[in-house]
Amino acid sequence: MNQEEEKRAAPCSSSVFVNNPHLDVMKEDVLYHFGLGTATHDLPARFGDVKFVCVGGSPWRMKSFTEYIAAEISMEDPESEYPNICAGTDRYAMYKVGPVLSVSHGMGIPSIAIMLHELIKLLHHAHCQDVTIIRIGTSGGIGLKPGTVVVTKQSMDATFLPKFEQVILGKTVVRNTDLDQCLAEELLQCSNELNQFETVIGNTMCTLDFYEGQARLDGAFCSYTEKDKQEYLKKASEAGICNIEMESSVFAAMCKLSGLRAAVVCVTLLDRLKGDQLGGSHEVLHSYQLRPQILVGNYIKKQLKAKAGRS
Amino acid sequence: MNQEEEKRAAPCSSSVFVNNPHLDVMKEDVLYHFGLGTATHDLPARFGDVKFVCVGGSPWRMKSFTEYIAAEISMEDPESEYPNICAGTDRYAMYKVGPVLSVSHGMGIPSIAIMLHELIKLLHHAHCQDVTIIRIGTSGGIGLKPGTVVVTKQSMDATFLPKFEQVILGKTVVRNTDLDQCLAEELLQCSNELNQFETVIGNTMCTLDFYEGQARLDGAFCSYTEKDKQEYLKKASEAGICNIEMESSVFAAMCKLSGLRAAVVCVTLLDRLKGDQLGGSHEVLHSYQLRPQILVGNYIKKQLKAKAGRS
User: Fold this and answer.
1) Where are the alpha helices (DSSP H) in chain A?
2) How far apart are the CA of A268 and the nearest CA of chain B, in angstroms?
3) Closest Cα partner for A289 from B30, B38, B107, B91?
4) Size of interface A-B (CB pairs under 8 A)
5) Interchain CB distance below 8 Å, B278 and A30
6) Strand, helix or coil for residue A194
7) 3-state DSSP helix/strand/coil % of chain A, to nearest 5
8) Which chain A residues are Cβ-neighbours of B226 within 8 angstroms?
9) Overall average pLDDT of the A26-30 stretch
10) Nearest by CB: A106 against B17, B107, B207
11) Which residues pair with B217 in a beta bridge?
12) Quick check: A279 and B114 CB within 8 A?
């Protein structure tokens, strides 16, 4: 078995991130959408200690997560403003506090995929080891009380199949969307200990569209009835789908390919069986959005404590 | 022919934007990702005069476009900061100066689709008439000198077909990606008059991914060779494809469905036959990014002058 085969045979080893022979012969790698690069930034010095990466759609939420986690792990610096590491671009925002990196990814599969390609290369160039990555997001629930947090078991497509289709050179390649089941169980356990809000483990449907793609009746176009919508969501529910969002499938697929320990933790902002519009009060929606942060913040704190105890 | 049939028979009439009977019975419509709504904002008063909408990926670029267009159409207000109309959310940024609305859409089909659903509903609620919408963006060129501006003739998918596939209730619906050919010719004519940079009309390939989906060799994963890449791009070129980006297909499809006069104007930042990385100097890349703004700004100025002359 040569080195390349060995690498492929152990896709879950703790430092296998990239799988691209072309990168080895590049003099320089520009991570364009981060405004970072191997020739312009000392990536091992700046990112080599990263153990946890949290990603979410909104740049504001990822900044607020950084402030929250800094206090949780007692690394807050009252003098610090937590500067945006990607300040040279407005495509993504990135913050770091100790071993925790926080990155925004925008909305939808293409947007998070660009970010993940560059993040995975960043972790590779920085020689990071044993990295856990968690998406903290928002979603529409199916039959759950709004505010319930869902830890994803499997990410499914709009036909309720656990797969992600990647088009390469015009041909469709099907990728596995498995997530780390141990990590999901640990997160559920953590939520039970916290006992602040309900958390469940369930399947998550990942769609390419928020309106027609999620059977909403309130988009600019709609050619189906309330009954059609309810039937579709009922079938989704029968496939074990608890919530719907727009990034989990490619997130699961890319993390699996790069050997990252990955989980998806999304709060449900509404019950889609009862409506489509996100019209709740700003305060209530905001408090729901904090829940994945609180859960994942607590999980990271616990892990770091356990690690400190072992060393 | 009843009213509904009449509406469908004239899909290009100047004020048909939405096609969703459910909207008529909603007491209130919350445009969630804009932080606007029919119950909280007087949309006709604030947006009723909109005649041009320019959209682009980056919020910074759309703000800078607003400042540019304000000066071009002599509506600049030295006191004004052009406040972000969507300041209550960080999903999109929106600016308005006179009849020109400028909105960011993030990266990729799902992100621009969410924005377009809410924009089309906004134009509908505001009773706008005769609206022209233009996407100003960046792209990778095929066989063009970097900095060339491409006005899209047809938007094609990764198999070089002029279609957009929308999944509705788990089933794939194929939509037409035709753009307004007169508008494209007018924009080309406008660029010829300006004579500042080269502009061509050609097909644009729209992909769901920036790395593997566009045959790049510099992503986190790559399973093909430089030769495979060149062959794929050569085939694209033979199908009349001049550039590659990530939003034009759903943009064309949704604008066509809603009767908006639409064009896509993207500058090419590099020639993909010669490389993959966006490593040019910041100044050069920035000057290229201004070109679609300059062209579209000039076009709008010309249209407004012609209209003022007629009235």
Assistant:
1) 3-9, 43-47, 59-72, 109-125, 181-194, 226-238, 248-257, 282-310
2) 15
3) B91
4) 219
5) yes
6) helix
7) 40, 25, 35
8) 22
9) 96
10) B107
11) none
12) no
| Chain B touched by A278 (CB under 8 Å) | yes
CA distance A189 to chain B (A): 32
Q: Does residue B7 have a pLDDT over 70?
A: no
Beta bridge partners of A176: A163
Q: Which two tokens stand for residue B282?
A: 């910041």
Lookup result for tokens 């499809």: B253
Nearest CA in chain A to B257: A221
Per-residue confidence (pLDDT) for residue A14, from 0 to 100: 67
pLDDT at B14: 67
Q: Which of B8, B16, B19, B22 to mutate to test the interface with A (most CBs of A within 10 A)?
A: B22
CA proximity to A213, closest of A272, A268, A137, A173: A272
- Kindly state the average pLDDT of the residues A195-206: 98
Query: How far apart are alpha carbons A289 and B224 in whole angstroms?
Result: 41
Please, which residues bridge with residue B156 across strands? B205
In chain B, residues with a C-beta closer than 8 Å to the C-beta of A169 are: 215, 224, 228-229, 232
Check CB contact of A67 with chain B, cutoff 8 Å.
no
Of A17, A59, A246, the CB nearest to B220: A17
> Taking 50 as the threshold, does the pLDDT of residue B208 lie above it?
yes
Pairwise CA distance, residues B175 & A110, whole Å: 20
B14-39 per-position pLDDT tens digit: 677 899 999 999 999 999 999 999 99
pTM of structure: 0.94
The one-letter code for the residue type at A254 is M
What does the alpha-carbon distance between residue A106 and residue A90 come to, in Å, rounded to a whole number? 11
C-alpha to C-alpha distance for A136 and A68, rounded to whole angstroms: 13
Residue B167 bridge partners (DSSP): B172
Residue range A253-308, pLDDT digits in tens? 999 999 999 999 999 999 999 999 987 788 999 999 999 999 999 999 999 999 88
Which residue in chain A has the smallest CA separation from B227?
A169
Q: End-to-end distance of chain B based on CA atoms, in angstroms?
A: 35
